[in-house]
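dude i think i finally got it to work??
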Amino acid sequence: MTKKNLLTIACLAAALLMPPSAALAAIKLSDQIPVGPQVKVGKLPNGLTYYIQKNGKPEKKLELRLVIKAGSVLEDDDQQGLAHFLEHMAFNGSTNFKKHELISYLQSIGVKFGADLNAYTSFDETVYILPIPTDNGENVRKGFLVLQDWAQGMTLNPDDIDKERGIVLEEARLGKGADDRMSKVLLPKFFNGSRYAQRLPIGQEAILKNFRHDAVRRFYRDWYRPNLMAVVVVGDIEPADAEKLVKATFSGLNNPPRARARQPVRIPTLSNTEAVVVTDKEASGNTVTIRYPVLEARDRDTFADYREKLIQSLFAAMMSQRLQEMAQQAEPPFMAASSSLSRITPRYQAYELNAALGKGGAAPAIDALVQENQRARQFGFSAQELERVKKNLMRTMERAHSERDKTNSRVYAAEYIRNFLQQEPIAGIENEYRYVQELVPGIGVDEVNRFARKTIPVDTSMLVAYSGSDKAETPAPTGPQLLAWTGAAAKVKLAAREEKPVADSLMAKLPTAGSIVGEVEDKALGLTTLTLSNGVKVILKPTDFNNDQVILSADRFGGQTLFAEADILNARYASAVVTTMGLADMSLLEMRKVLAGKAASVSVGLGQYADNVLGSSGTADVETMLQMLYLRFTGVRRDEDLYKSFLGKQVEGARNVMAQPEAVFQDTLISTLYNNNPWIARPPRPEDFSKLSLGRSIAIFKERFSSAKGMTFIVVGSFDSAKIRPLIATYLASLPTTDLPIGYKDVGVRPVTGVVKKAVYAGAEAKSHVSLTFHGDAVYSREEALRLRVLMDVMNIRITDILREKLTLIYGGGMGGTVSKIPYGSYSIGVSLPTGPANVDKVIAATFAEIAQIKEQGPSAADLEKVKQNLLQTHRRSMRENGYWLSYLKLTALQDYEPDSILTYEQRLAAVSSDDLKEAARRYFDLNNYVQLVLYPEKK
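look at this
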């Protein structure tokens, strides 16, 4: 199951072999789509809607959501920003939880603030997110109590309101910059002067600073009412028990006696064609958008509606593929583009064309966007194009159905939120799988082409918007120019698109198979290690964590640093250059056409000190994944046009990167920390790519990826060990293993020593950023790495409690650290704290005060236990995830660790003591060896 609603899935996939069962009743298009049996949907007498689904992934966890059909668009003039402000206040005291008690309690049961516990406010809704462990019934009961307090139990204490102003203003500060400044010009145009343009969720700074307390209380009284609420309960709980809790907890909520009407907000139809141009000196790229008049989005609750949505998905996928092909030209009209009919609010949708501009600017992009859409409207799509996207759709649905009992509860919770807010059907994957089987084969190319003619606008008003840099090398067009180019593009006489033939398969001839010559079993870990006839090793870990997922990895020491300093850029981009040119004798787009209906991918790359291979596939597509891997090791496709296209995109992508103050700050941090060492990548400049060579990049790639010698391939997932062995013998045991250097080279990359402090002045907004980096030598061990991880999490609790909640100096930020053994034993701790310029000294002082305290006293027992609970729950969930096992086995194979240490994690975590962390803090927070950088606004 994907995060997108399965009924409106636009990602299109592969051929489904199983025909619809004759025993199932035929679909009648006029019928309404039923609610699926997987979910219990109910409504309390007070109007509150609830959704309940039992789901076992992850085990012993419950996803709770409180959904309010009220967001910033309902704010009165004196409330701008207060829908979002009220969301903040939910964590600042309520009927059953005093200020700070809620977050502290949830942390004590392993729920992490921000990562787990969260909320968001949008134009039309506010959603509260609460995951709760279910191994203790009292925790579940309290979780429901938290939702009840959020619904109608916030205390909204005057002192707490005033204190929260600083935190919300810091959040508003984070959003300031070029995008924000340009959006304030563009959004009134895109929303055609409607209330949406006047009610951005973050609000008005002046109101946030000065609003009267009753203004936020009034929003709470008016709109937090049960007839605008939904409670979503998905996870490891019996539905009958969940329903009893819902009724007991929320039946007492009351609607106001004289409720304000929840009127829909109207977006007027654009009546005249117009253009808008907005530029900013800090813009990182240039874009053009053509927005056609908004349309009212009707509810889609019948099978006829569902079938039309499938047609829309097929249409969107074919348009996307055509635009991708245009972007691969040697002189592409744009870097990337999209064209779709999409929802812009719960009530409205619009057809929109977008392009990220290349060196040619807006004119060629407008030509290509308008003409390719009109070509599709006039001549339609081919049967071959439709067949490919049908295959992709069917394969996607097949995988979703296969994973129906292994889908994360968060995904189902998101579906029910969309049902409540947008009335998207919730038939369930069991039913939807059947619907797609029955409906998709009957959708013909003529029908899709009729949809294209009906949907792609012609001879209508439009808004043409340009946003981008004001730099001289990328001159912005004028509004009249945009309109002239758009009008001229619409008048060009077009020809039908020619469909080129594609190959039937990736490989015309299979390689001569090798053999499996050795086998060792590890029953404790469920591993089998195979030795192949070419010397390659393969570790197999079959699992039942997913039903249709197989992932693969291989690493060996090597990487970029084996090459000369003069080759740094070519080594850094070698794998990207080779990948962009395709596989075997196929371009990347030709390969995707061949792979229609397959779920498989492979990537290879040169890291700093290692060569890396990654792959993934569905269970039925393992052979395809291994074929792709084999082809990647046995040849490189050279394509001058695709290389030119790749190079142009890199240059354009880098052109305005350094206009962003954040990029200037990051660049200065890297150059300062590593004393301009060329081996450390910095934000790229356009001139860097003049040093890139196609021939040398290919040669470097071949040096490392024409041989699999020294590699251990790890395969984890839903495969049959007996069935995968012949495939391993065919594709992995046949890989070339010619001799090549194996090992990493220490090229002397070391941070600067001593205390280094630097100020960076960049950006027009009153924004600052404090960065601290502690570093030094260390002896790596699993235990030491775990101690540092726990220390970082404890420090992040302190940063939240003190710098955010007590001092209101920051909205977000924190610290993270690692202990490494490659290329030498070392540690690094990074502290990142965005704030206001006036608060920089206070932030630095408060941070060092917390460091001093933990060095002197260690963590409190309560904070240490909170961190342990979260890490314990995270580990237990991760032990049922293929990706976690792959990462772990990859590390043990590369660095020669004992694999069974994964089984002792809980004991090692339990053994971490307060004294351990105090000693670690003294060791790692070396006040004689750190780099401090502070970003300030540019000097006027």
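The two ends are 52 Å apart (CA to CA).
im so relieved honestly
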